[in-house]
Design goal:
mainly alpha; 85 residues; 2 helices
């Protein structure tokens, strides 16, 4: 996985994770109540995984689109012989 995808995923997970933790655990933190470390870490881990996955899928689809068509793939898949009516 390219490093720019990982850096974008880290930035996204920090931003989204902080927001989710503020929403989910803000009152518990202010009141001094216990905070679930599993829930806290999932609020960072899940956005990281989603961002990294979508970034790698987007990179893969762009690289596939940049390849020249093979013999089996016509230049324009919509172009085909018309059948007589």
């Amino acid at each position: 996985m390219p490093s720019y995808i990982l850096m974008d995923a880290i930035k996204t997970s920090l931003l989204v994770g902080l927001g989710l933790n503020a929403i989910n655990y803000g009152s518990s933190f202010v009141n001094g109540n216990g905070i679930s470390l599993l829930g806290l870490s999932c609020n960072f881990l899940i956005p990281f995984c989603v961002s990294a996955y979508s970034g790698s899928r987007a990179t893969r689809s762009v690289s596939k689109a940049a390849r020249p068509p093979t013999k089996e793939q016509p230049d324009d898949p919509g172009m085909h012989e018309e059948s007589p009516l």
